[in-house]
Amino acid sequence: MSDTQTIGQAGEAGFGDYIALLKPRVMSLVVFTALVGVLVAPGPVHPFIAMTSILFIALGAGASGALNMWWDADIDLIMKRTAKRPVPSGRVQPGEALGFGMALSGISVVMLALTANLLAAGLLAFTIFFYAVVYSMWLKRSTPQNIVIGGAAGAFPPMIGWVAMTGSISVEAVLMFMLIFMWTPPHFWALALFMNEDYSKAGVPMLTVTHGKKSTRTHILVYTILLAPFALAAGFTSIGGPVYLLVSVVLNAIFLWGAWRIWRRDEDMAAADKYAVEKQVFKFSLMYLFLHFGAFLAEAALKPFGLGGW
Amino acid sequence: MAFRAEHELHKRRLGRNVGLGFVLVTFVALVFGLTVVKVTNVGQMQGFDHVIRPELVPAEVAPPTPRPTPTPEVAKP
Predict the structure, then answer these.
(1) pLDDT tens digits, chain A, 310 residues: what are they?
(2) Which fold would CATH assign to domain A15-169?
């Protein structure tokens, strides 16, 4: 028997594991949408304040990701896609993830209050609460509508960015929120159609598991139809303009056509081509959101030259 | 005898400590930057409660004060 033992290696996390707890891929979307919210907001703001606000919004989103990983470690272990995350793999202890998430939540909210204003900080605190408690702890395991309501957590960042710069909520901020909120269900359900097995194993009541794929296809079409008016309406506000409206009309037409194609297919057709259409629509949905927010940015960038906006 | 063997564990700890150090330095720099920006960009405000400091606000041009109406002189007897 050896007289030395190496202990705690499995539980010894590297710096990268703590970064992974923040869900960097989700954070990158948060940074982008919050950046747009900040840049399209009216009024001059010091660039350092704007940059710092985005940083703390992203940190808050990361904190909620860490809390989500702490709570969901049991189902993350079952799903192939998430089994290598720091908590289920044992590199980070659940208590560490909880403490990390709570500490970062507090820091991000307080720092956003000091950097921008109390309303923005309050919205960030609500977003963290909504994602960690309402979505992760309550809705995710109890209702197939988890994605619909949980989508609100991902929809808040551009609104927080706007509020951080202006100090108030306006129709533009609400429409940016609605754009992401209504986009989330068709985006995730398109993914769930071809990633069904993982969610079934973990017992997460995704719509595909509880109501079947036929019903999910109908839901995708309905939500895509409901999404279009919000996306187009944003084009008639102060953050929209001809460029945005043109981009939005084209993107919504393509998304609706994709949702229509998904709705018309049955499982046999989808299995025959290995869910080619569903995968296509899922990939396009990412582009859809990116280009909409890119068009907001383009309108804001054109304004100094007298071209953007109406 | 000193324990000199370099273990993978030590590399991981070093990486974590260096990372944490970097994060802390960045945070201090951010707070310092924010302080500088806030202090130099808030205008003429009191430092302690962020309200306008009346004595620093440029005085408005005072409206012309009405001349006192002359009291009719009473002829002395």
Answers:
(1) 444 444 444 567 889 999 999 999 989 999 999 999 999 999 888 999 999 999 999 999 999 999 999 999 999 998 888 899 999 999 999 999 999 999 999 999 999 999 999 999 999 999 999 999 999 999 988 888 888 888 899 999 999 999 999 999 999 999 999 999 999 999 999 998 888 777 778 888 888 888 888 999 999 999 999 999 999 999 999 999 999 999 999 999 999 999 999 999 988 888 888 889 999 999 999 999 999 999 999 999 998 888 877 7
(2) Tetracycline Repressor; domain 2 (1.10.357)
Residues of chain A contacting residue B33, judged by C-beta atoms under 8 Å apart = 48, 52
Is the minimum CB–CB distance between B24 and chain A shorter than 8 Å? no
- Nearest alpha-carbon partner for A21 in A81, A73, A80: A73
Nearest to A10 by CA among A104, A75, A96: A96
Cβ of B19 and A9 within 8 Å?
no
For CA atoms B13, B15, B18, B23, give the dihedral sign.
negative
Q: Which residues of chain A make contact with B18, given a CB cutoff of 8 A?
A: 15
Minimal CA separation from A44 to chain B, in Å: 12
How many CB contacts within 8 angstroms connect chain A with chain B?
33
Task: Please state the ipTM of this predicted complex.
Answer: 0.81
Instruction: Tell me the domain boundaries of chain A.
Output: 15-169, 170-310
Beta-carbon contacts of residue A210 (< 8 Å; ≥ 6 apart): A144
| Count of the separate structural domains present in chain B | 1
In a domain, B13, yes or no: yes
The domain in which residue B37 lies consists of 8-41
